[in-house]
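Fold this sequence, please.
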Amino acid sequence: MASVSKGIWSNFAKRSPSLAVKSKALQKALLSPSLPNGPVSLKQRSSKMRYTSPIGLDEIYPLAYQLLEKQSESIYKEVEQIEKQISESKDKEQLQQLHKQQEELLVQAELNNPEVIYNANYHTKSLDRTQPVYRHFLSEKWRSYSRMLTMQRLETLAVIPDSLPTLDPQVEVNLKFPHNNVERVIEPGTVLSSNVTQKPPSLEIVEFKESVDDKYTVLVVDLDTPDVENDSFKTTLQWGLKDVVLSNTDPIIDAKKLIQNPEWEFVEYLPPTPEKNTGKHRLAVWVFRQDDKQNLKAAPQGLERDSFDIRSFVAKNNLTPIGAHVWRSIWDRNTENVRSLYGLPKGRIFSRFRSGE
């Protein structure tokens, strides 16, 4: 049985070990042309045992692997040259351009590596996001489905433009609620019970660029609070976070982190408690990336939580949205219990009547 030769993809002196498949047995099977254990796509053991590789693959596979590996070696030589330029340059614009080129080359160098491809497809949750090639694969997967789904829900539910006029998503926003020790990622637009949402959610902000201690602002708003005086609806600020520091290796906002960093929460979490007969309320989650030296300007004391003007707040703080999420909430039999838990007044009951009656 032919085997691939050892080259740059087997050398981890300057490459991260996370670019390799951890299991030696799986690695051996993955790099063997005849696939002794059968393709990963075959699930049944009997199908794997009957599998035979195509004629000539034993000869072609090592040659193809060597060709791609040599191409990778030449790309890494370009990376070394750029690294030298980066160390010598003091021009900010030039440095930004060089870092961008470096990132693109690091992606190209590993894009055809079988071990990297396997990890990207079968170990998505444990990928090393410090590696540009893994961020590339995550971005491609996100753009092929989740990004479009999120935008479809935001626009169909009129979160855009009822809260902010538009969004060019740059990050993936994953939302979970801790409930009965069971957590699942919430699909945008899902209707959740008051029991599930009575505690603050955890948020994962997935960056597809290099991220080291980036700062974020997060706003959660209810777009469907009844405004009886004006016979309309108003926006309520349910939760406000500022100056949140995250990175590729630490992208989660959860209760534990908020306890450690209480200054992040400028408006405490208020669970959605829709009043009876007010329909489904849209709870929009907006994520903004702050500049390196930027701190939130708007004083919390000046905020009108019950009549929150999100557009004015965003403009005042010069914030640009980079991601969003949405879930929905409706009155249920547990809503009054949640109101009582947070010291809120008893909810009103709305009814429909004809004009003039």
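The radius of gyration is 26 Å. The chain has a mean pLDDT of 90.
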